[in-house]
């Protein structure tokens, strides 16, 4: 479809205040008479809390409140994690505001302090006396699942959830297979490492509404906060700030409940901002997985069976583990057409930091395993990386392992081939200890939430009397251009320039609720809602203009702030004239539209079948690395991303997602390792938890294929999370190519690569 | 042990003279954000690891979380907001916005200050030199590529830019 504004790489409107430094992020905001909050956190990963004595802290100068679990009206909730539908206990977990009776992880919040200054609040933390009795704890999910294991929570099992897929007969297929490859892959905890630590300010407005201005991906948490306080939902308002990076780490509640409680008890505005160390300690992590992946193939390269076992470390609380596990189950065998598939997945509680959402959400971990496996298969059979994938990857009409037939455009083989080809001629390493290697990996990942969550979004578009446009949509903007995309859609439909559009985002009381900025869903969901609202207005404008111009509605076009008849050059009206006529008729030009994702029913058993997601994004990374055989050090020298983006809405922002998604996974592949030993976090700063700097990365070439086959506006697909998929195995496959070492544990640090090379059989 | 004494300082912040009493251990970053309302300098770590607090102190590009407020006594501090009329800062800002070098924007003010300081020293850099110069400023969103593009375009002018639309 031909578009004039959609697709353009226009600078996003929020780029201007951001380059001026005038955006008021969560911690940049202050209120008169504001108090400062601090959180007392558990020192032990597993302990009984025998007593918490706050008397001395309460008496400390400047302290206005010290709260413990006993002060929280509803301290234990079944968290719904932002969705409004009821999906049953197997997908929900305990959300506990403050620890009571028992602590489950180092850093678990136990008490809250609000004081006149940060120093006073900090000093009061030292005066709170917690009497612990240390308990043994369990730190490995396999141990945690054994009978008689220490129970992390109050239940008598540590199993959070289990899912499986059964297709065909894998045992018979393995027997008949010419080649069988089996490996176990391990991935560590990783941290989002957004540069803005968790932060917010809360106050009670003049009508008694608890108002929280916070950096969050989910303004719908106002409901959970209301339940914590025991007040009606409409007594809590969340105003989302421009977020300084989220990546899933600001998807669960961070500071909201703490702020609400403290402002509720003191009647004063309260600010809480985490330090970097606290941020690393306190928020969710990407799940560590151990994945046993066994594939069988015939000599011609055709896969006949895949058997995958996945064990995820959920950490100390459930949070989004069931959903992550379900994603990993559906993605376990990859975007391949395999007649026999058996998948078993389990997530277990441990006394480690809790795991939840992180860009890639359960798709990225199995991707590392299956793309390493297919690479190994190609090597064993002497089939090149592109061909082995082309032979096996899903084609339009093929069924996923769950039995769901994918009937949209699917060009995976082409994506792999183009990425590979774009690497160009290989660099000659010559006679040096540095070896050059190349790797390819493909991936699939959903955009939009699980279909049984019955997802919806709303957006409001209004034409002002002067022809300018107001857009209101409760979308949190994390920097990916979520808001900009909606403005471009409106500009396209109504023929108004971008600077005539003003947008308001992320206010649970004032903007129509658009759902979470998670699951790569906003362009798809709110994009469709906005498109629907804009088109509704457009229809009304055209109808009016047709009457005024005596034209046929089918001939009228909206462009450059006019409505013109394409068949008669003299028949043209300024947009605002038409708006004026509508207004005189009492036809106010506003529209609030809702978009509903496809709905399916909630899985009733562990066996996952049929449709689980509305659609998928497919892509490939091809890379070239240099490996120093004397040190094991890996340098990523070239990288190409080739993705079917459906349709580009903003070229710059889409490229930015591919570049940034690739970069974050270079960190995952080569350096990031959030180390936890017996429940204790070892990497407490950016000196220990290393993320890529500008020097660690090459330019990433981006190829965006536009099949216009997505279910987003104009055929767009989501790329935010899918773009982080496939980079890590592309790199480890390149290491394998360079030096023969198959990396099965991430990250592939110099030490890891060197040891793997050395002990290679 | 009581550390009650305050240090009286006089600092020029973005052109305005400020007299204040600060605690001896207070960082320049905290002083600016909390006492002066200068919030374009950000605190991503408070330990010199991320670069979000980068500013110009007495003509030098520094990480303000590593400098004590008391050390700024008698000196000039410039943050991004104060560089409104600085032509190089303005070109960089424009270039960052137009190249998509800004995603969440949290690293942006510090990144711009670092880039400006670098281009003043090396007006004709290679891409590798730009990457090296910015390696003390973390960005988790962009993968740095468009930031490098933006700096490059300022160094070499519009001819070096690709048509984006
Ligand atoms: S806040 Fe100063 S370097 Fe991070
Ligand atoms: S744009 Fe988000 S950290 Fe750089």
From TrEMBL, chain A:
Residue ranges annotated for the Aldehyde oxidase/xanthine dehydrogenase a/b hammerhead domain, each copy included: 20-136
Pfam families found in the cross-reference section: Ald_Xan_dh_C, MoCoBD_1, MoCoBD_2
InterPro entries in alphabetical order: Ald_Oxase/Xan_DH_a/b, Ald_Oxase/Xan_DH_a/b_sf, Ald_Oxase/xanthine_DH-like, AldOxase/xan_DH_MoCoBD1, AldOxase/xan_DH_MoCoBD2, AldOxase/xan_DH_Mopterin-bd_sf
Organism domain of life: Bacteria
Gene3D superfamilies attached to this UniProt entry: Aldehyde oxidase/xanthine dehydrogenase, a/b hammerhead, Aldehyde oxidase/xanthine dehydrogenase, molybdopterin binding domain
The protein's name in its UniProt record: Xanthine dehydrogenase family protein molybdopterin-binding subunit
UniProtKB/TrEMBL annotation, chain B:
Record's keyword terms, sorted: 2Fe-2S, Iron, Iron-sulfur, Metal-binding, Oxidoreductase
Keyword Iron: yes
The 2Fe-2S ferredoxin-type domain, residue ranges: 7-83
SUPFAM superfamilies: 2Fe-2S ferredoxin-like, CO dehydrogenase ISP C-domain like
Protein's recorded name: (2Fe-2S)-binding protein
Pfam families named among the record's database cross-references: Fer2, Fer2_2
PANTHER family: OXIDOREDUCTASE WITH IRON-SULFUR SUBUNIT, XANTHINE DEHYDROGENASE IRON-SULFUR-BINDING SUBUNIT XDHC-RELATED
């Amino acid at each position: 479809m031909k578009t004039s504004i959609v697709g353009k790489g226009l600078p996003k409107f929020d780029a201007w205040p951001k380059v001026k430094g005038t955006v008021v992020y969560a911690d940049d905001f202050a209120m008169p008479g504001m108090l400062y909050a601090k959180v007392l956190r558990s020192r032990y990963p597993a302990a009984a809390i025998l007593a918490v004595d706050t008397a001395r802290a309460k008496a400390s100068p400047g302290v206005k409140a010290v709260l413990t679990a006993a002060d929280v009206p509803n301290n234990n909730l079944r968290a719904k994690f932002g969705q409004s539908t009821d999906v049953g206990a197997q997908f929900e977990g305990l959300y506990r505001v403050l620890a009571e009776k028992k602590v489950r992880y180092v850093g678990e919040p136990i008490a809250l302090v609000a004081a006149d200054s940060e120093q006073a609040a900090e000093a009061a933390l030292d005066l709170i006396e917690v009497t612990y009795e240390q308990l043994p704890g369990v730190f490995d999910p396999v141990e945690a699942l054994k009978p008689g294991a220490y129970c992390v929570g109050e239940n008598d099992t540590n199993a959070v959830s289990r899912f499986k897929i059964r297709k065909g007969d894998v045992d018979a297929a393995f027997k008949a297979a010419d080649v069988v490859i089996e490996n176990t892959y391990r991935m560590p905890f990783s941290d989002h490492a957004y540069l803005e630590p968790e932060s917010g300010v809360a106050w009670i407005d003049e009508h008694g509404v608890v108002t929280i201005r916070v950096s969050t991906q989910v303004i719908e948490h106002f409901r959970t906060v209301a339940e914590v306080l025991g007040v009606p939902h409409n007594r809590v308002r969340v105003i989302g700030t421009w977020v300084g990076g989220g990546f899933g780490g600001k998807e669960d509640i961070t500071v909201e409940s703490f702020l609400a409680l403290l402002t509720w008890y003191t009647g004063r505005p309260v600010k809480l901002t985490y330090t970097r160390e606290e941020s690393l300690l306190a928020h969710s992590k990407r799940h560590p997985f151990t994945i046993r992946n066994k594939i069988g193939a015939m000599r011609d390269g055709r896969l006949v069976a895949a058997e995958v076992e996945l064990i995820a470390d959920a950490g100390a609380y459930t949070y989004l583990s069931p959903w992550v596990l379900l994603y990993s189950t559906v993605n376990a065998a990859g975007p391949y057409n395999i007649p026999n598939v058996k998948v078993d997945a389990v997530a277990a509680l441990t006394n480690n930091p809790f795991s939840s959402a992180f860009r890639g959400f359960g798709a990225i971990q199995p991707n590392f395993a299956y793309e390493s496996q297919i690479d190994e298969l190609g090597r064993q059979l002497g089939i090149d990386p592109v061909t082995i994938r082309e032979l096996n990857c899903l084609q339009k009409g093929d069924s996923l392992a769950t039995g769901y037939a994918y009937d949209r455009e699917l060009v995976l083989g082409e994506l792999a081939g183009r990425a590979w080809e774009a690497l160009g001629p290989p660099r000659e390493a010559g006679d040096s200890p540095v070896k050059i290697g190349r790797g390819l990996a493909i991936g699939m990942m959903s955009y939009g939430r699980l279909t049984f969550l019955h997802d919806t979004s709303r957006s409001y578009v209004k034409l002002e009397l002067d022809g300018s446009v107001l857009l209101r949509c409760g979308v949190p903007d994390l920097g990916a251009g979520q808001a900009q995309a909606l403005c471009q859609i409106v500009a396209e439909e109504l023929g108004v320039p971008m600077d005539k559009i003003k947008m308001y985002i992320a206010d649970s009381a004032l903007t129509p609720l658009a759902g979470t900025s998670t699951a790569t869903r906003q362009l798809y969901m709110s994009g469709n809602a906005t498109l629907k609202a804009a088109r509704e207005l457009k229809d009304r404008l055209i109808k009016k203009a047709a009457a005024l111009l005596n034209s046929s509605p089918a001939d009228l076009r909206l462009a450059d702030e006019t409505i013109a008849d394409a068949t008669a050059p003299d028949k043209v009206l300024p947009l605002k004239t038409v708006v004026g006529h509508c207004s005189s008729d009492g036809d106010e030009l506003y529209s609030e539209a809702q978009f509903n994702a496809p709905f399916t029913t909630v899985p009733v058993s562990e066996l996952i079948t049929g449709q689980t997601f509305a659609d998928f994004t497919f892509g490939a990374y091809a890379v070239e690395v240099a490996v120093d055989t004397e040190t094991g050090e890996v340098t990523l020298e070239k990288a190409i991303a080739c993705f079917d983006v459906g349709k580009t809405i903003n070229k710059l922002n889409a490229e930015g997602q591919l570049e940034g998604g690739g970069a974050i996974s270079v960190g995952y592949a080569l350096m990031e390792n959030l180390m936890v030993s017996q429940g204790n976090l070892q990497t407490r700063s950016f000196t220990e938890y290393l993320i890529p700097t500008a020097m660690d990365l090459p330019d990433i070439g981006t190829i965006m294929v536009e099949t216009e086959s997505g279910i987003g506006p104009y055929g767009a697909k989501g790329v935010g999370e899918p773009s982080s998929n496939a980079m890590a195995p592309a790199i480890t496959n390149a290491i394998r190519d360079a030096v023969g070492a198959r990396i099965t544990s991430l990250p592939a640090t110099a030490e890891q690569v060197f040891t793997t090379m050395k002990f290679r059989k | 042990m009581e550390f009650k004494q305050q240090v009286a300082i006089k600092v020029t912040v973005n052109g305005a003279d400020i007299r204040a009493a600060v605690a001896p251990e207070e960082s320049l970053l905290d002083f600016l954000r909390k006492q002066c309302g200068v919030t374009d300098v950000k605190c991503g770590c408070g330990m010199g690891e991320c670069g979000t607090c980068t500013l110009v102190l007495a003509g030098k590009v520094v990480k303000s979380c590593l400098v004590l407020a008391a050390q700024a006594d008698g000196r000039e501090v410039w943050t991004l907001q104060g560089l409104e009329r600085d032509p190089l800062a303005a070109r960089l800002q424009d270039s960052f916005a137009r190249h998509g070098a800004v995603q969440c924007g949290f690293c942006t003010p510090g990144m711009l200050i670092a880039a400006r300081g670098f281009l003043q020293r090396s007006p004709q850099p290679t891409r590798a030199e730009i990457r090296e110069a910015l390696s003390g400023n973390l960005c988790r969103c962009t993968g740095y590529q468009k930031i490098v593009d933006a700096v490059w375009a300022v160094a070499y002018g519009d001819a070096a830019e690709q048509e984006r639309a």
